[in-house]
Amino acid sequence: MIYVVIAYLWAAILLYILLGGADFGAGIIEMFTSAKNKQYTRTTMYQAIGPVWEANHMWLIIAIVVLFVGFPQIYTTVSTHLHIPLVIMLFGIIARGTAFTFRNYDAVVDNMQKVYNKIFVYSSFVTPFFLGVIAASAVSGRIDTNAGDFLSAYVFSWLNWFSITVGFFTVAICGYLAAIFIIGETKDDASKVRFIRKAKQMNVAAVVFGGLVFTAAKAEGIPLDKWLFDNTVGIMSLTAAVLSLILLWYLLLKKGKVYIIRVLAGFQVTMILLAITLRHYPNIVILKGGKYLSLMEHAGQERTIYSLAMALLLGSIFILPALFYLIYSFQKNKGQWDH
Fold first, then answer.
1. 246 within some domain
2. Residue 28 forms part of a structural domain
């Protein structure tokens, strides 16, 4: 049953990056849109994410619950030593959701709409940034469980160039996913061309920040290149990601095959996550001094894992069909949500 729980944890993280990431990317795209196109971009994004945006955080909740119940020592260590970026990320989620709701459903349209818009776009940037910071910090070997002062225990564990560059890389990936997903929601060729250009720009930004991630890792003695390129699965995963990227750019130039482009973008992110996580499996957190926290060695009691696995399996029977029907129903009738 432990493998069922681990599979759900990995799937929840992946789906949050893909769906929640595209959700955050809507605000990132809006942030980097010119004033004359901002309203159209905002409306198009709302039509795409509005009806089901809250469901995206279900994957984050599942991941947190799995860690809390099934791997309490891992949950405690991460939530203690990375509590500052975690709190900032959670505040970003709350602020973004609140601003999104008020700017779209507020009964009074006044100057507060400008405030809501700013909160929405800035929190859309901050939240995935710190999500990337947390992920990088977990494997950077900077978490010191024996630290004797506040800065060493709770600040230097995440405030470093490697974590920061991964944060920017995560922001670029979210913007890239949002631009790719939104291309199929446009109603005219000019808008499609605009979002294709945004997708290319965000893709280039992701490549640039990806290069900075490797540079920062090299400077800080983190063997990122070894993690990714010293095993067959990692090489195959990254090769598949690169080949799918080439095909995606070809299809973008053709300005067609919208749904294939979406699949390719999701496939790229999946391959990148697979290459990174498989190298460390089952060690999910690398601590200072070469220590680690393992999904196998630091799991909860066998009875707890069994109950958690059964809850996840049974919950999927009820939740997943309802979620798919929700997405299908709103996609089928999305014209009714035009503002």
1. no
2. yes
Query: How far are the Cα atoms of 7, 56, 61, 270, 295 from residue 4, in angstroms, in the given order?
Result: 5, 21, 17, 19, 12
Give the pLDDT band of residue 339 (cuts 50, 70, 90). Answer: very low
Reduced to 3 states (helix: H, G, I; strand: E, B; else coil), residue 82 is coil
When computed from its CA atoms, the radius of gyration of the chain, rounded to whole angstroms, is: 20
Decide if 278 is inside a domain. Answer: no
What's the distance, Cα to Cα, between the start and end of the chain in Å? 47
DSSP assignment string, 13-40: HHHIIIIIHHHHHHHHHHHTS-HHHHHH
Task: Give the H/E segment covering residue 194.
Answer: helix 189-219
Domain count of the fold of the chain: 1
DSSP string for 210-268: HHHHHHHHHHTT--HHHHHHSSHHHHHHHHHHHHHHHHHHHHHHHT--HHHHHHHHHHH
Contact 294, 2 (CB under 8 A): no
70-90 pLDDT per residue, tens:
999 999 999 999 999 999 999
CB–CB of 202/175 below 8 Å? yes
Question: What distance in Å separates the CA atoms of residue 339 and residue 325, rounded to the nearest whole number?
Answer: 23
Query: Coil, strand or helix: which one is 288?
Result: coil
Residue 276 lies in a domain: no
If residue 99 lies in a helix (H) or strand (E), which one and from where to where? helix 83-105
Tell me the longest C-alpha to C-alpha distance in the chain: 60
- Report pLDDT digits (tens) over 203-257: 999 999 999 999 999 999 898 888 888 888 889 999 999 999 898 888 887 766 6
Domain ranges, residue 169: 2-216+296-337
